[in-house]
Design goal:
With 238 residues, the protein is of the alpha+beta class. 25% of the residues lie in helices and 29% in strands. A 6-stranded mixed beta sheet has the order 8-2-1-11-10-9. The chain is globular. The structure holds flavin-adenine dinucleotide. The site of flavin-adenine dinucleotide (FAD) has 23 residues, from helix 1 and strand 2.
């Protein structure tokens, strides 16, 4: 047996699981498909319960160092919601922190605790017997473990290989997310956002790094195959 537990997927879930297992002395190998960490920012922040868990694990200072605290409140599913009153938490705020930073901090934590991480390792098959699990990687290698944990995201290969269903209703709306350089002044951007959001709540444009902005727009319709990335072409008029 190569290791006690193989964790498939080195996103925030996989790295947190790897760190937790190491705290119990379990030998862990994380198999991550991507050669390099993604630079795409999905999550923009952590909510109170996640922040509490980072605090319990002694990770809070690292997160606070890279994040910005915002008051609670905002909207959920387009519905404006005030901050809950009397929240019983030492961390009743939202911590703005881009997901690539969260991913990096959790990876560093897991590695410091002794987890091994293998990048460029795409799981394409599984073989299970009474002794454990054999993993088939795209490069043909076959690491083995006593247990395997699937943390490979919303379109999990592990779930598909195990034949586990994912029942639910298909989405009736779709939103596109992108990052772009914006040359307009912050005042112009703010005025355009305010104007468009009067009638379209799913529109957003916010700076993330200098001129680079994160833009969110409603898609025209819903894709038939959501595994295929949509291409969004600008008209070239700005
Ligand atoms: C547009 C968008 C905005 C979001 N905003 C927020 C937010 O503001 N706040 C928030 O809390 N959450 C947000 N989320 C959700 C958040 O991004 C996810 O909940 C989080 O990434 C889930 O983590 P995960 O580790 O489970 O999966 P992932 O982050 O998807 O990680 C899965 C990992 O598994 C790897 N993998 C996949 N298949 C294989 C394979 N076959 N073999 C090996 N490795 C594999 C992938 O490369 C990936 O690294 C957002 C998501 C999106 C899409």
């Amino acid at each position: 047996m190569d290791v006690d537990v193989i964790v498939v997927g080195g996103g925030p879930t996989g790295m947190m699981v790897a760190g937790e297992l190491r705290l119990h002395g379990v030998e862990v190998l994380v198999l991550e498909r991507d050669e390099e960490p993604t630079r795409v920012v999905r999550s923009l922040g952590l909510h109170a319960r996640s922040i509490e868990i980072m605090d319990q694990r002694g990770l809070l200072d690292r997160f606070l160092e890279h994040g910005t605290r915002y008051p609670l409140g905002g909207f959920f599913a387009g519905i404006p919601a005030p901050a809950p009153e009397g929240l019983d938490s030492a961390h009743a705020y939202v911590l703005g922190i881009p997901q690539p930073v969260t991913d990096r901090l959790l990876t560093e934590h897991a590695v410091e605790l002794g987890a091994r991480v293998r990048r460029g390792a795409e799981v394409v098959g599984l073989e299970q017997d009474e002794h454990g699990v054999g993993v088939v990687l795209a490069d043909g290698t076959r690491p083995r473990a006593r247990y395997l944990v699937g943390c490979d995201g919303g379109r999990s290969t592990v779930r598909r290989l195990l034949g586990v269903d994912f029942p639910g209703e298909p989405s009736t709306s779709e939103t596109l997310l992108g990052e772009m350089e914006v040359s307009a002044s912050p005042e112009t951007v703010a005025a355009v956002v305010t104007e468009v959001r009067r009638t379209q709540k799913r529109f957003g444009l916010a700076p993330i790094d200098g001129a680079v902005h994160r833009v969110i727009v409603p898609a025209a319709g819903v894709s038939e195959d959501r595994t295929v990335p949509r291409r969004w072409r600008s008209s070239g008029n700005g």
